[in-house]
Amino acid sequence: MGELLSVREVGKTYTGAKGQQVTALADVDLDVAEGEVVALIGPSGCGKSTLLRMIAGLDGAFDGELTWTKPPRPGKDIGFVFQEPALLPWRSVERNVSLGLEALRDNSSEARQRVRDLLELVGLADFAQCFPKELSGGMRQRAAIARALAYDPRILLMDEPFGALDAITRDRLHDDLLRIWEATRKTIILVTHSVEEATYLADRVAVMSARPGRIKAVHHVPLDRDRDPSTRRLPQFAEFAGMLRQELE
Amino acid sequence: MSRLLRTLGYVAVIVGGWSLYVRVADVPAYLLPAPEEVLGALATLVGEGELRPHLSYTARNIVLGFAGGSLIGIALGWGLWSSRLLRELLNPYLVLLQAAPKIAVAPLLVLWFGLSLTSQYVLILLLVFFPMMAATMMGLRDVPADVATLGRLLNLSRPRYLFTIQIPAATPALLAGAKIAVIDAMTGAFLAEYLSAQRGLGYLMILGNTSNDTPLLIAAVLVTVLVGLTGFGLVSLVEKLRRI
Question: Most buried among A118, B50, B52, B81, using CB within 10 Å?
């Protein structure tokens, strides 16, 4: 697996409402390899979302260095999934998913086929012509994931993508994401505050601490890449999740 | 069907009450003519072909004034929304302009632009632009933060962002504004005709009033109400079609 992205001594300081200096992030080092799933976990306010936005190129005001082996092309290489689906309510599921392709003026038959394949992959093939309000919360988030993958980005950034869902739906989407990864082998950076989610989905977990936001430790998840619901019952799973939980305290 | 019946019921109650009151209280015709007299005046207006030129004159002014005022309002709203400097610079003037009673401004307009179409249009535009401007600003604010971020991630150009995201997102607010603006356009058109015109429904009302032809006055008011309902109905129809 080749290197894709390296984060070196990244920090961010901003001026707060009362004029005081706030350090949101300090000395963050992180390497991400191609095809890898990295989870960023930490308490709220540890700057994990800020770090993700920096990687997405949404926030350029920081110290340190973000180095890509191939710099991302605007509108092509970053797939982003928010906590909320953020679908456009006046567009059908299919037209929401193809939004990025439209922006690239990609009208090719391969692009259209890709959208169909993705809808199939996330289980929304029968709902392509539906509008977001006709879908359940989990289906909407699946559509948002398909939208982020439609233009075949080099990396998928996910900002607490399952945080707003109920537990049963969340478990189901975890399995969907594993399946999506199996099919696409995308590099994924996943921001989460759930230790189980990080353990189940990631190859490596970066544990962050708050004020100032730092990376405390990076752990390899001691599980096979081949995971399914029975993985959650393995002793290693519980052990690793427990260790993460302890580290967050 | 039941809606039609209900509407007819409303009309019957109003007309019946009116007719009964005129008869029982023995109201003289120059104060309040009976419904059939008003209907007669209306029939004469239509029959002699007098209504059509007045109606089309007023309708044209309303349509043009509404369209022009909406364009100005939307452009201003977009400008104010996208530039903080412009917002801070223009806001006091706009609020002052809106706070000024238009009836008081109207004679001034006649003074400046004469008894011409220009003064009529200026008055309509003045009334229409503000609700559309406010609606545009509100609508643009309705774009959720995540969707705005998505626009940046997908590297949408400014015009593309405007047409694929901002305008559709602002449409419900714009239609709500249009409902107010269309009524304002009508108020402006009638007010302008009241003051200066030699034609139009407002002029018919003046004519009815000054010639002591109360049935004509009331007939003109009724036509005006119908025009108002039509304008409002058209905007509501667009709103409903969009939701399907």
Answer: A118
